[in-house]
Amino acid sequence: MRKKIMNKYVFLMIATVSMWMKTYIVYRTSFDLKIENAMQSFILFINPLSFFLLIFGFGLFMKQRTRNIYIIVVSTLGTILLISNMSFYSFYTDFITIPVLFQSSNMADLDSSIQEIIKPSYFLMFIDILILMWLARKNRNKDYGVVTSKEKVSYFLVVCVVFMFNVGLAEVQRPHFLTRSFDREILVKNIGLFNFHIYDGIVQSATTAQRALADSDELVEIENYINANEKAPSEEIFGIAKGRNVIFVSLESTQSFVLNETLNGKELTPFLNDFINESYYFENFYHQTEQGKTSDSEFIVANSLYPLGRGSVFFTNTENEYNATPEILKNYHYYSATFHANNATFWNRDVMYDLFKVDKFFDIESYDITPENSFGWGLKDKEFFEQSVDLMKELPQPFYSYSITLTNHFPFELEEEDKLIDEYDSNSEIFNRYLQTIRYQDEALKRFIEKLKEEDLYENSVIVLMGDHYGISENHNEALAQFLGKDEITPYDTIQLQRVPFIIHMPGITDQHPELISDISGQIDVKPTLLHLLGIDTSDMIQFGQDLFSPERTSFAVLRNGSFITEEYISVSNMCYDRDTGDQIDREGTCDVYEDMAHDELSFSDQIIYGDLLRFYNKEEESVEE
Length: 626
Ligand code: GP9
Ligand code: MN
Known about the structure:
This protein folds into 2 domains: 2-210, no CATH class; 238-545, Alkaline Phosphatase, subunit A, CATH 3.40.720. The chain contains 26 helices and 19 strands. Strand 17 and strand 18 (575-578) form a beta hairpin. The model has no long low-confidence stretch (mean pLDDT 93).
């Protein structure tokens, strides 16, 4: 009798243990999960178990033969999902979510390195499945009898206990991790990769339903929050650039650490280093993008809303109402245009720009692109700026222009003639080339400003330069540490590396009185800051950013994964650091104090996007105008 029970479950148990171990090995070898203590390692070790017990357990309702086939199919699908996450992680240091599967351009990136995708080691991951197939075949004629209802009940009780035990330990480690966390790494570390995918599926359906259920009361609560946090603009700066053109340049993958650095005695960014001395330069300005990369940065700048924690708003919410900068500026007789030498449909830009009410999108069709003037991702930045200024000078003025560079994009490739410095020497080819494309981009920017001067577009403009997101992921930490002269890159350093340049240049103003501004800020602050410079009151707008010149402003930035930076502290995952020294400190009484603020910002912003709440705001506006 005992033997029989054993045999009934043996196949299921072999499959469970092998998938469990396989997942754990992948955690340890393919993902860079930061584990701080023994309890966290234990949770990581047990977390794949409940999922496999549950999913294979459904097989108990099937006849033995079907059950074995079911277990093999599930193991195969599970393995494919593991491998997909491994490939995705090696590019993005992130886990797959449902919305990114629909971001074709992400996948296009993956396509370009198919060798990377199909690593020979991946085939080894199917060995256990071959063994299962062999076992199933060998035992196909043996009958171990049916699983009784009582056995099923006991089995699923065990599954529940294992799951509750896992979640309970995780909850002790990181209270409210399920409801509070925007960080996928925290979820994977605590409930496991596969349960995370289920969680992601639940979030997906919940957010889809959110729009239908939303009503205008939700917006009222958020408006109250925003009004309570609102800061009056600086009287001195408000309207200082009234009537000027805005020439905004989004710098592809440009992080702040490249500024004021040299390689073999040569400056990496000679032009920018000079330019910031004639500008307002924000040295503690963070990008707040997530899976939507450039599109996220465009979204934040245009709306002063946070991007989504999963996927890109440019794909997930293409029918919402927004109240973006180009639309607002229309009321002040500004013409708006975006310049980007790529397909209009790429990243859904054409659709989103329509929603933002951009007057004209100069896409790939507007440029003269030849084999001589393009390389890698397309038109080289120098040529891009050259032709963009020619287009820009024909625009009605004042205008709000948004240009997006491209050459400094992964995998950072240049033609020989454009390599202005020697390659760096580290173990990362990507990083070595990155410094060269950064140098090239700097040269292109220099020419851009010269040409703006030649075409009389310089004097009467506000020129804004901003890095869109990081270019060098954590996969290149060793090279980064070598370049920065550090022993290693800690999670604290990783947060500090999320700083991107933000430069506001106003001829006749900032060249007379340049300023180095050290307050903590982020892309979310761009919209109110720019509108105030142009003398536009934003007090009744729904936005999460604050005017960077406001004397009352709180020096604070929240990253999209819930990490945040204050004057004194940096919080990342479970950890809290002293911002000055980088030393790890106790959360309680320090980082925890700001936790609610960070959480509110992100969840209110999510609520607006998922609920399409600005449709109610725009109604309010209309009725005021009437
Ligand atoms: C493509 C460019 C790059 O048009 O904006 O996008 P990214 O990969 O950086 O999000
Ligand atoms: Mn980008």
